[in-house]
Structure formats: structure tokens, C-alpha cells
């Protein structure tokens, strides 16, 4: 029978013979127009479950690592007891941080009250309370106008034991239990390039540590502060040193004091506005130790002299310092030197200016024997000179 509603271009249906019915089971019926099951849903579900599990596991591992590393050691762990300090805060004793930790308790900030008050630095050299600093830090201060502040913030009055304007050194005394003294090194054993740490209170910033190297040795300089002319055969360093560092220790990589910070070089001549440009000078600790011991023992220090008035050599000569006058029976005279001789080297250090000879002589203790090379006319000669203490 023809179907008037049939599309004439549709293929004819194929009818297969029906299967015999089974044991009462209904014949399955499939709707050809029903949508097919989407196979990607189980895949998506599996991915979501995996992501949740991964996030949970990762969070747990991250928290455990954070607690172990000290990141979560603040308020989160406050109720569970104190945690060990983070490993990052522990440094080997031989590291620069280890040296700073060891030396800092011995460094003090010196406060001077009164019209000429100010701030400087110093360091403890004995357990019974002696402190070394610069003369210019305590210059003009009354004995009752001094106080020292330790690294832990505790403060105590200080008394002035004595001072030596010529060498720019002074000694204070404090009464305090449990003082830690610095280790004193050998300033004659340091070399150019050795690492250094400078301690003190630059610009009143207490407990400051800066790093540098030994830039030069026996750098002879003349300093004029408050009308007092001083001569230094100093250790030069590029460690950052500013006002307030004066009197603080200059320390080697082993934590031993090798110098006393004293002078800075600046592009301005005004000491009130001078600042660090990487050129600073320290009094060698061997000299500072000797002077301080004399101040403690006698209240003053001896000045080392060669027994001659000196001036710069005439133009045209290659370096050297001319002996203008030679003191009778003085060290130079006893060694055979005469007025007019030109000293070219002292203890193997070349001399180019009168300041060089004066500063180098001041470095030595009275009684030291030094080699002097000099010219008399066109003849080069050598003498051994036993330096002496000034009669003053």
C-alpha cells in the first residue's frame, strides 16, 4: 500500500523477521531519537576528584615544611610552645656575623653631656672596666659628664682616667659586673687587603657594624682638631666610618682589635659636615695599647722623639726630610746624625715630607731602635737610632 505522507527520496526500510520471545523477558526497546550517553562526564569527574586530592595533600606538605623551617613559628604556634630559632639566625663563629656577635657586647656608645656634649664610641679592654676611646671624643668633658651605653641598652656613668691629646687617646673607667673585654690583635701583623669590621655609633646610630679592608698601612697624616695638631701613622680602611665612630674598634676577621677609629678623609674641610667617602684612618692598636697602659699607670703618656727639628728637603732633591737642627745628646745626635742631613727612610719607610718622619716616630715606643737611611751631601749612609721620650 502506498503511503501518501512518505518522502519519495527516503530509502525503503528493511524489516527483519522477529526473534522468538524468550523466557518471559520483555523485548528491549530502543528509541532511535533518544540522545546518546556522553562519555566525557566520568573523565571530568575523575579530574575534579584528582585535583581536590592533590590540593589537600600539597597543602599538608607545605604546612609541614613551613613549620619545620620556622615560617609558621609566629602567632600560629604560640599556643603550642616556643619553637627553636630559625636556622638562618645561626652563623658560624668565624663568619663576619659571628665576629660581630662576639665583639658587639664589648663596644660602647659614649655620651658627653654639657655645652660640648656629643656622641662617640669606645670599647672595653679589661674586665675591671677600662674603656679606650679618642681624646677628641671626651675633650673638654667634666669627669661627671660622661656615660657609656652598652649594646644591650644598659647605661652606666664613666670617669675619665686620663687622656693624651698628642696621640688622640683617652681611657675611661666604668663600674659594671659581667664586662666582656675585647681581644687585642697585633697591628704590625695586618696586611693590605685584609678584611676589617668597624664598630661604633656613627651619627648616633648605636650598634652599627660596617665592613671594609685594609687600604694602606702607615699612612702618615696630620690632623688639626680644636687647635690640637696630631700626627698619625695610621691604618687606612675603606670601611664606612662617620662622626660618632671615633674611638670605636677596628677589628680583623678573627675578631681581634687592630685599630682605634680616629679620623676620616672628606671632600669638605668642615668637620661638622664631613662624611664617609671610603677613606678613614685608625690608630694602630699596638700604639693605642702602649699609650693606654701608660695613662692607666701614670695618668699621662710619653711622647716619642728623635731629637731633631725637621723640614722638607730642598727643591730638586728626590724625597727625604732635612734635619734643620739636631738636639745635643739626643737620639739623632747619639747616632751620628747632623744638621743638614736628609733622612730618606725610617724603618724602611720612604719619607717625602716632614709629617712622615714625625708621624712614624710617634708610632714607636720610647727605647725602640729604628734604622735611618740618610744622605750627607752625595753620600748615602745608614744609622741605628734609639728613640727617646720627650722630656716634657
Description of the structure:
The protein is an alpha+beta fold. It folds into 3 domains: about 95-175, Thrombin, subunit H (Beta Barrel); about 185-300, Trypsin-like serine proteases (Thrombin, subunit H), CATH 2.40.10.10; about 305-390, Pdz3 Domain. About 20% of the residues lie in helices and about 35% in strands. The strands form 4 sheets. Strands 1-2-3-6-5-4 form a 6-stranded antiparallel beta barrel. Strands 8-9-10-13-12-11 form a 6-stranded antiparallel β-barrel. Strands 15, 16, 17, 18, 19 and 20 form a 6-stranded antiparallel beta sheet that branches. The N and C termini lie far apart (about 150 Å). The model is unreliable at about 5-10, about 10-35 and about 65-80 (pLDDT under 50).
Q: What's the mean pLDDT score?
A: 82
The percent range for strand residues is 25-35%
* CATH fold-level name of the largest domain: Thrombin, subunit H
| Number of separate helices | 6
**Order of the strands making up the biggest sheet:** 1-2-3-6-5-4
Q: How do the helices and strands follow one another from N- to C-terminus?
A: HHEEEHEEEEEEEEEEHEEEHEEHEEE
Number of domains: 3
Q: What Rg is obtained from the alpha carbons, in whole angstroms?
A: 41 Å
Outline, from the CA principal axes? Answer: globular
Structural class: alpha+beta
Number of strands: 21
Residues in helices, as a percent range: 10-25%
- Low-pLDDT regions: 3-10, 12-35, 63-81
Within CATH, the superfamily of the largest domain carries the name: Trypsin-like serine proteases
- The CATH architecture assignment of the largest domain turns out to be Beta Barrel
**CATH class of the largest domain, anyone?**
Mainly Beta
The main sheet comes to: 6 strands, antiparallel, barrel
Amino acid at each position: 500500500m502506498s503511503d501518501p505522507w512518505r518522502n519519495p527520496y527516503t530509502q525503503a526500510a528493511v524489516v527483519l523477521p522477529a526473534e522468538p520471545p524468550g523466557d518471559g523477558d520483555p523485548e528491549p526497546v530502543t528509541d532511535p531519537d533518544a540522545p546518546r550517553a556522553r562519555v566525557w562526564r566520568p573523565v571530568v569527574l575523575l579530574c575534579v576528584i584528582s585535583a581536590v586530592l592533590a590540593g589537600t595533600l600539597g597543602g599538608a606538605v607545605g604546612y609541614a615544611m613551613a613549620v619545620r623551617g620556622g615560617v609558621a613559628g609566629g602567632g600560629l604556634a604560640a599556643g603550642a610552645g616556643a619553637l627553636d630559632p630559625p636556622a638562618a639566625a645561626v652563623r658560624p663563629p668565624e663568619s663576619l656575623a659571628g665576629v660581630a656577635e662576639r665583639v658587639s657586647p664589648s663596644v660602647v656608645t659614649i655620651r658627653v653631656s654639657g655645652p660640648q656634649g656629643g656622641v662617640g664610641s669606645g670599647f672595653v679592654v679589661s674586665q675591671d672596666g677600662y674603656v679606650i676611646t679618642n681624646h677628641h671624643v671626651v675633650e673638654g668633658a667634666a669627669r661627671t659628664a660622661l656615660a657609656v651605653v652598652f649594646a644591650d641598652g644598659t647605661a652606666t656613668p664613666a670617669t675619665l682616667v686620663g687622656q693624651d691629646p698628642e696621640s688622640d687617646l683617652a681611657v675611661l673607667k666604668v663600674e659594671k659586673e659581667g664586662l666582656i673585654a675585647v681581644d687585642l690583635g697585633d697591628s704590625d701583623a695586618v696586611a693590605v687587603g685584609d678584611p676589617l669590621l668597624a664598630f661604633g655609633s656613627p651619627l648616633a646610630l648605636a650598634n652599627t657594624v660596617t665592613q671594609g679592608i685594609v687600604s694602606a698601612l702607615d699612612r702618615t697624616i696630620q690632623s688639626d682638631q680644636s687647635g690640637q695638631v696630631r700626627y698619625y701613622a695610621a691604618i687606612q680602611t675603606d670601611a664606612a666610618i662617620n662622626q660618632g665612630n671615633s674611638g670605636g674598634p677596628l677589628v680583623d676577621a678573627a675578631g681581634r682589635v687592630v685599630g682605634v677609629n680616629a679620623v676620616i678623609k672628606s671632600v669638605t674641610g668642615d668637620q661638622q659636615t664631613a662624611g664617609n667617602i671610603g677613606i678613614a684612618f685608625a690608630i694602630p692598636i699596638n700604639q693605642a695599647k702602649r699609650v693606654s697602659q701608660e695613662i692607666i699607670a701614670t695618668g699621662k703618656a710619653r711622647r716619642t722623639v728623635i731629637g731633631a727639628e725637621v723640614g722638607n728637603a730642598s727643591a730638586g732633591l728626590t724625597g727625604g726630610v732635612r734635619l734643620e737642627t739636631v738636639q745635643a745628646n739626643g737620639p739623632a745626635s747619639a747616632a751620628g746624625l747632623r744638621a743638614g742631613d736628609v733622612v730618606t727612610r725610617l724603618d724602611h719607610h720612604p719619607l717625602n715630607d716632614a709629617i712622615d718622619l714625625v708621624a712614624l716616630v710617634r708610632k714607636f715606643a720610647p727605647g725602640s731602635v729604628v734604622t735611618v737611611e740618610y744622605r750627607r751631601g752625595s753620600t748615602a749612609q745608614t744609622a741605628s737610632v734609639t728613640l727617646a721620650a720627650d722630656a716634657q
